Amino acid sequence: MRVRDQRNRRRGVLAAGMLAVALALTSACTGGGNGGDNAPGWQGGADQPAAKASVTISEPAADATNVPAATAITFATEQAEETSVELTDSAGKKVKGTLAKDGKSWLPSKALSYGESYTATVTATGDDGLPVTATSAFTVMKQPSKQVRITSFLGDDQTVGVAMPLIVKFGRAIPEQYRPELQRRMTVTSSPAQEGIWHWVSPTEVRYRPKEFWQAGSKVSYRVQAGGLPLGDGWYGRADLTVDIKIGPKLVMTVDNSTKRMVVTRDGETIKTIPVSLGKKSTPSSSGTMVVMEKLRKTVFDTFDELGPEDGYRTKIDYAQRLTWGGEFIHAAPWSEGQQGTTNVSHGCVNVSMANGAWLFNNTRVGDPIVVKGTERKLQLGNGWTDWNVSWEQYVKGSALPYEPADDETADDEAADEETTEDEAADPDVTASATP
């Protein structure tokens, strides 16, 4: 809009009046209606200004077929102030999803239906307020025969300790070149927000830990949107996976070989000191930060296959809590109560009395940390959930994506923006399944 000088205001009004009369006479003579080939530009719309913004969809391409069910809508915009994405199926039903942080793609909230046709519409609006759109119609591939099963160690609504890593396993090795795209679809949100990262411990297992122990009382949700995602050699993810858990109190067990004592703290306060007997010199306990992986009220330790008939033993055990794959436990050992607090006599385990074993068993959770100090052997990386036995700087190197330090934006804000489908069916392949 152009603002006229006030001195010309009266002259302009008169001119406008004369022009209106002239147009009225012309209309009466010609008998034309609104619009038409001879309509003024401002009336017929032919000279409307072009929108500043532009948008193009790169994937899926228009009329594409055999599109993976995990496809994202990828697009490019220029001079866009606002961008929105709409995806509809062949019946016109809208699919919910989330716009990526960089504003260059949009991911459906769940895998698309195999064999279904969809239409993506991306609308971009510039600072002139004029929208432009791009559309792409495509068809999803038929259900593949080669599908990779995805499982979680934890299931919904479990309460775990502050050192619990999130563990996701795949039924087939994931080739290295496919891990970045898979990891982009693995999201973790927590309340309160906490910085963390995924770490590949093997081609079939990836874990997530926060930079520091989880904050006590946190709510944590993690999701793997891998349903229909290409995972190499003609294999595709079988289904999406979503797990919601809770973090319990901050219970930490610290064992010092020099004092032969375990100090137990809850939320920073000492609640119990327990005499212990650690591994003797020939079979020392491991020093390092370990995590309770399994709790067994009663079990049997059988080492004959490992140690042979001369050194092997078979013993009934109460209140056992596994710390390593190699066989180190916290457990009740009534036979060594006379040495607990003074002498190391175990085969590497943390021996406690029957009463203290029961107390620990009733107060700990899977995921609680134990720190052992001052023994003759250091904890071997990979012998258990040793995620906390490496520095944060080392841990981030196991990510398939470059590490980006967290900013002041909270993950909870992002979670609040995420849309979810209203009709997610209870699919047995979507829920988490426990692994032994």
TrEMBL record:
Biased composition (Acidic residues): 405-427
Keyword Nucleotide-binding: no
Biological or metabolic pathway of the protein: Cell wall biogenesis; peptidoglycan biosynthesis
Active site location: 331, 349
Region (Disordered): 399-436
PROSITE patterns to which the protein is assigned, alphabetical: LD_TPASE (PS52029), PROKAR_LIPOPROTEIN (PS51257)
Keywords for the protein's UniProt record, in alphabetical order: Acyltransferase, Cell shape, Cell wall biogenesis/degradation, Peptidoglycan synthesis, Signal, Transferase
Keyword Ribonucleoprotein set for record: no
L,D-TPase catalytic domain boundaries: 251-373
Signal sequence bounds: 1-30
Protein name according to UniProt: L,D-transpeptidase family protein
Organism: Micromonospora fiedleri
